[in-house]
Design a protein that fits this description.
Layout (H helix, E strand, L loop, with lengths): L3 E4 L2 E4 L3 E2 L5 H13 L4 E3 L7 H11 L7 E6 L8 H13 L6 E4 L8 H13 L6 E4 L3 H10 L4 E7 L7 H10 L2 E5 L11 H10 L3 H10 L4 E3 L6 H7 L9 H8 L22
Parallel strand pairs: 3-4, 4-5, 5-6, 6-7, 7-8, 8-9, 9-10
Antiparallel strand pairs: 1-2
Length: about 280
Amino acid sequence: MTLTTQHFGTEIPTIGFGTWKLKDETAQECVSKAIEAGYRMIDTAQAYENEKHVGRGIADAQLPREDLWVTTKVWMSEFADGDLQKSVEKSLDRLGMDQLDLVLLHWPNKDVPLDETMGALNDVHSSGLTKNIGVSNFTTAQLGEAVKLSKAPILTNQVEYHPFIDQTPVLEAAHALGTSVTAYSPLAQGKVFDNATLKSIGEKYGKSPAQVTVRWFAQQPGVITIPRSSSPEHLRQNNDIHDFALTPEEMGQINALKSQQMRLIDPSWAPEWDKAA
């Protein structure tokens, strides 16, 4: 069973497999196992330095290419016109593919004009190297600017999102623009396992805190999530969330955890993040 969300006429799987920090043969094996476990979206990036092994894992799974959604992200050093297009061609070569489903700008880069970068990203789209384009780690203002500068729809904004961070401004901006939000680090780098609320809800359904969290994401309109695990058993469990549903009260209990405002990813090059009211 594959849950999807639709934006600009495109059906997108709402649960994908993230590959950040997975290297070499581990990345290859985990991607293959994830596809076997029913994931139909694989998310990687140039900066992860694992595209080659992600591609091998996809090949190992022997799923028809049209049945799988593959996303990669362009690193900031490749944002100039010409550099960006070449970098995507190299990503495709490493992945062993002719076309991506989605190419994202990994982080905003104030050193290259956004209109130049969006022009190059649109060129990648119009030339057929990718079916869709989007951004990652963009603030609401930056997302709005990217939408204005882009001929092709901005399909998603991939941001840190888990139960312990309030991303209300980002979600509201995306919904207003008709785009989606993709949640990375959705399990808060393992911190969901120690949360009493998530444990309690999980006990009711015979599910882990991670499964409760992924289900919480699945019940949010216009939200995609990409949990990662290096354990074949855990990655299978993270996608085993189709046999139960959270009540409105339980959704509210999890939503209340955002008051912790626990941001885990905040590098020196990060933009000034939107603050919830």
